[in-house]
Amino acid sequence: MAKFPKSFKSKKHKSAEAALKALQEIYEANTEHLREQFRAFVRGELKPGERVRACYPYARISTKYARRPDSRLAYGFAPHPGTYSTTLTRPDIFEHYYQEQFRLIMQNHEVPIEIGVSDTPIPVHFALGSEFHLEGDLSVDQLKDMPDIFDVPNLDIMDDEIANSTHIVKAGEEEPLSLFTAPRVDLSLQRLKHYTGTAPEHFQHFIIFTNYQFYIDEFITLGKSQVKTAEYTEFVEPPEGKRLPQMPAYHLKRADGSGITMVNIGVGPSNAKTITDHIAVLRPHAWLMLGHCAGLRNSQALGDYVLAHGYLREDNVLDGDLPPSIPIPALAEVQVALEQAVAEVTGQKGYELKKVMRTGTVATTDDRNWELRSTQRQNEHLSQSRAIAMDMESGTIAANGFRFRVPYGTLLCVSDKPLHGQLKLPGMADSFYRERVEQHLQIGLRTMTLLRDLKPEKLHSRKLRSFNEVAFQ
Fold first, then answer.
1. What does the domain layout of the chain look like in residue ranges?
2. Which of 39, 65, 86, 187 can bridge 178 by disulfide, Cβ–Cβ 3.0-4.6 Å?
């Protein structure tokens, strides 16, 4: 016998507020049903053969026209006439995001938003939340019986084909309204807590990635002091007394979510892909890479900055999703903000800025010991690319920003010059870190302030959208 939650009739809504309210009612009723039934299961009141199911809410639009009153916007409209839909989750986290997407679609197409119950089941794991651990709270027999009673995560419907522009709409099928389905979003929300040690609702719209703990230490000091001002409301970090997670996140929060989150992703393109795969579902307004790099030109000095305007992608981890032949363009809005921030913080302007910063191609590799390759082969390759710096994360972060339509940028600091005999050695490195980290971080924070002042509609550029895009930002 199947146990279903309260039924809801689908309804078309003429205001974003009404559509959001209907979405919230469906989601809360359906997840609470799963939680109630799970509690009954733990008490031994449900037996194999009894089936419990609740499904995600959906949003749907149908439009006969693709025109819109303002062609400057990169999102908020359907690319051509048709019917579009998506499953939705966690309105507590995405309340403002969903309402804004609904508002723009209604404004651009003058059509109502239909909200109803989809046929995509909510896995019980996602309804229970990130604080629940099945392996610690259920017996061996209960763990074995769970899939016979409840729906569990299904990886077949959690791929990134929509974001990768490889999704094929079958005859009679509705077109996607969003880059991510609800199960894909829920999976990432769970993984974020696992990898970063903080709940997804703490993440802010502006993200800084770094590959060194020195930056985090400085951010903690600065963040806690900033909470005393009117601009920021709270500073959140992983719980004390526990082993730090793999990629700890720290959040300098603003009331409207437009604060700054900083994540220590560690070293390597695999980590860079992992964390950006999951943060992307939060639809941030921008992410930046602030870290160290090897300077490849003799004219560079330790402590100089590198503003990436192109990437030689040898990270390999994204080749199956975004082939290396696809160019990753520099985004003017982010580049201008980064250059302005460097000028303001260092005091160098105009032509003088060239004394402390160089713009060019950054090569990103998956080989931590790239210096040990044949010098002749390596120098020829790097020279052909015109690369001015080498690191292990920037190209991956930029490429995933491009893939997921998240504005991106890179500002690195030269910490060694292995091709010119200046290797990163302990004594030299410690001195360098103490001298440069504070200034570098100040530049990153100032950049985020400049980008925040641009507003989302200007920051989310049309350069990141394909010719057959989903309506949601």
1. 2-189, 197-463
2. 86
Q: What angle do CA 37, 5, 178 make, to 5 degrees?
A: 110
CB 146 within 8 A of CB 47: no
Q: Where are the beta strands (DSSP E) in 162-304?
A: 175-176, 206-210, 234-236, 249-253, 260-264, 286-295
pLDDT tens-digit series, residues 162-214: 999 999 888 888 999 999 999 999 999 999 999 999 999 999 999 999 998 99
Handedness of CA 151, 157, 158, 163 (dihedral sign): negative
Summarize pLDDT for 406-423 with one digit per residue, the tens.
999 999 999 866 554 445
CB atoms within 10 A of CB 170: 6
Calpha distance 104→96 (Å, rounded) = 12
Q: What is the CATH number of domain 2-189?
A: 3.30.1730.10
From the list 226, 219, 228, the residue with the least C-alpha distance to 249 is 219
Q: Give the number of residues written for the chain.
A: 473
- Largest Cα–Cα distance in the chain? 76
- On whether the pTM is more than 0.85, the answer is yes
Structure tokens at 289: 């890479």
